[in-house]
Design goal:
Oligomer: single chain
GO molecular function, one term: glucan endo-1,3-beta-D-glucosidase activity
Largest sheet: 9 strands, mixed
Helix content: 25-40%
Order of helices and strands: HEHHEHEHEHEHEEEE
Function: Glucanases play a role in cell expansion during growth, in cell-cell fusion during mating, and in spore release during sporulation. This enzyme may be involved in beta-glucan degradation. Active on laminarin and lichenan.
Strand content: 15-25%
Distance between the termini: 23 Å
Protein name: glucan endo-1,3-beta-D-glucosidase
Number of strands: 9
Main location: membrane
Catalytic activity: Hydrolysis of (1->3)-beta-D-glucosidic linkages in (1->3)-beta-D-glucans
Strand order of the largest sheet: 7-8-6-5-4-3-2-1-9
Radius of gyration: 19 Å
Number of helices: 7
Shape: globular
Length: 310
C-alpha cells in the first residue's frame, strides 16, 4: 500500500525485511522484495533496504547470520540491476562488530540513553559517546542513527525519568548536536502508539511520540530552537547532578510534570505545521519533520515510508 500510494509522488522509502529465529520469514520477505521490484520503480523511490530490526539484540540471530542475509539481499538486488541501492540493518549500537560493519553499506544504529538508565542531564553526552565510538569502529563507513528518542510518561528506569520536559530537552539537545556534527537520524517516534504492550520494566512503550495518539501535537511549534546551544562534553558519571552546558531545565525526581515551559502545550489542538498530513502518517510510515530528521511510527515494518536521507 505504501509503495502504491507513492507512485505519483517524489517521496522516498526504506524497505524493511523482518528477521526472527525462523529463516523462512526472512526468505518470504526477500522474495517479496524481489517481486515488488518488477512492479515499482525502486530507483526512483527506494533509498535503502533494511535487513532486520534488532534481531541480534533480541538474540534471535548472530551477527554472522545477519551479515550473511545482508550479502544475500545485495546479490539479489545486483541481479536486478539495483546494486546502487544501499543495504543495511537496524540494530542497537552494541550489536555492531567488524563482521556486521563489513557487510552493510552504512551503519544504522539505535541509541536510547533512557534504556541505559541515564539521567536527562547526561543523556546527550552518552548518546554521542556511543555514536563517536561506532564511527571509529566503522572507519570510512557512514553512521546514521536509525532510532533515538525519550518518553514523556510512564515509570522511571533507574536515573532516566520520562516527562514532557525531558522528552523535549532530549529532542532539542540531540537534534541540535546532530545538526552541528552533520549526523542523519530517525526520531522515535512520530505518534504515541496505544497498541504497544505496557508490561515492560517502566511502562513507557506507548509514550514515545512527539504527537499524541489523537494526532494533536505535544509541543507548540517550533518543537525546538538551537539558538545558544552548546554540546555537553561532560565526562561525569550518571550519579552526578551536573547540568548540561546550555542549562535546560529537567524533571529528575518524578515522572509527573509539576509545571510546563511555555513551549510545551499538553492540551493543544492546533496542527503542527512541521508534521505531515493524515494521509501520509499511517502506522507504517515515517514523516519528514525538518532538516535531516525523520520520525518513525513503527520499529518493525515491511515498508518504511520516509523522506530521503540520501
Amino acid at each position: 500500500p505504501v509503495l502504491r500510494a507513492m507512485e505519483n509522488t517524489d517521496w522516498k522509502v526504506q524497505l524493511g525485511l523482518w528477521i526472527n529465529k525462523d529463516d523462512a520469514v526472512y526468505e518470504k520477505d526477500r522474495d517479496e522484495l524481489i517481486r515488488l521490484a518488477g512492479v515499482f520503480d525502486y530507483k526512483k523511490h527506494v533509498t535503502a533496504v533494511i535487513v532486520g530490526n534488532e534481531a541480534i539484540y533480541r538474540e534471535e540471530q548472530t551477527t554472522a547470520q545477519v551479515a550473511a542475509k545482508v550479502k544475500d539481499v545485495k546479490q539479489a538486488l545486483a541481479k536486478l540491476g539495483l546494486e546502487s541501492i544501499p543495504v543495511t540493518v537496524s540494530e542497537t549500537w552494541p550489536s555492531y562488530d567488524k563482521t556486521l560493519i563489513d557487510a552493510v553499506d552504512y551503519v544504522n544504529m539505535h541509541v536510547f540513553p533512557f534504556w541505559e538508565g541515564i539521567s536527562i542531564d547526561n543523556a546527550q553526552r552518552k548518546a554521542f559517546e556511543h555514536i563517536h565510538d561506532l564511527q571509529k569502529l566503522a572507519g570510512n563507513k557512514r553512521v546514521v542513527v536509525g532510532e533515538t528518542g525519550w518518553p514523556d510518561a510512564g515509570g522511571n528506569f533507574d536515573a532516566a525519568v520520562p516527562s514532557l520536559k525531558n522528552e523535549q530537552r532530549y529532542l532539542r539537545e540531540f537534534i541540535c548536536r546532530a545538526q552541528l556534527e552533520k549526523i542523519n537520524y530517525v526520531w522515535f517516534s512520530a505518534f504515541d502508539e496505544a497498541w504497544k504492550p505496557t508490561t515492560n520494566a517502566s511502562n513507557v512503550e506507548t509514550h514515545w511520540g512527539v504527537i499524541k495518539g489523537d494526532k494533536t501535537p505535544k509541543f507548540k511549534s517550533p518543537m525546538y530552537d538551537c539558538t545558544g546551544f552548546k554540546p555537553s562534553s561532560s565526562t561525569s558519571d550518571d550519579s552526578s547532578s551536573e547540568e548540561s552546558s546550555d542549562d535546560l531545565s529537567s524533571d529528575n525526581n518524578s515522572s509527573e510534570i509539576d509545571s510546563l515551559d511555555n513551549d510545551i502545550d499538553e492540551s493543544s489542538n492546533e496542527n503542527d505545521e512541521s508534521s505531515e498530513s493524515d494521509e501520509s502518517t499511517s502506522s507504517d510510515a515515517q514523516s519528514h519533520i525538518g532538516g535531516n530528521m525523520m520520525v518513525t511510527t513503527a520499529a518493525s515494518v515491511v515498508a518504511f515510508a520516509a523522506a530521503a536521507l540520501f
